[in-house]
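Figure S7 source data.
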Amino acid sequence: MLNRFSRFPLPALMVAGLLTAVSCGTTYELPDTGGAYSDEAARLFAEARQSPPPKTLSRSAAEVRFARVEPRVMRAGRETCLRLKTGVNCNVDIAIDREMDERNAYFTYQNGQPIIRISLPLIQDTGSDDEVAFVLAHEYGHLIGRHVEKQQQQVLAGALIGGALAGIVGDSSDAVGIGMGVGASAGGIVYSQSYELESDTLGTRIAYDAGYDPVEGAKFFARSEAARGSGGGYSIWGTHPPDRRRVATVLATKAQIDGQVGLRNAN
Ligand SMILES: [Zn+2]
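Tokens for the predicted zinc ion complex:
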């Protein structure tokens, strides 16, 4: 009995401390996507699925499209990143990943350097410069939202909380192992969808600042499954919220831009 009581306060304090130390939500407010925006997103989806997929670009035409779009998105993304005083390194290296043969794009850090990579098959699958601009701007949003850093903190906190809970239940190393697994996956899954929507909000603004039409660009997400290829399990497609909600987020953000409503910090 004494043992149980003496062991209890430490994990409880750890859990409370971790929950207050880890920021779970988005940095910026997500726009309200209800009503008219959802209806309009549904209409855009129906339209996109009725029209045939765009003709696949040749590899050289895809290279030309990327070379045209990339400098403009890089400039607009960097300006947004600096203006918001995010504290991150705003100088992103954006390039084509020539090893990647599925349709995909991603943001990550390589030796501390933020990088955005996009595959040639994805660019070949786009119907306009606006679509490439939107995909790149969305990835830039992951940097500005500090999603990699936040997810790492959450996975770590989830693992520690899971371990601490297992510690309350018992000292068996099996229980700790199971607890850590549960905690880690819960931290990764719960928040990723709001991060994707935050990236869509930031990406809409960056694509617009770069001189592209973000609503045209978001049509990339309204394509039929058949037109997407096999990249289903990876970043740009990965744990994403329903595509219709993403398109509604783009429409709602564009309405904010038109109404000269700036980004607001989330509470
Ligand atoms: Zn994403």
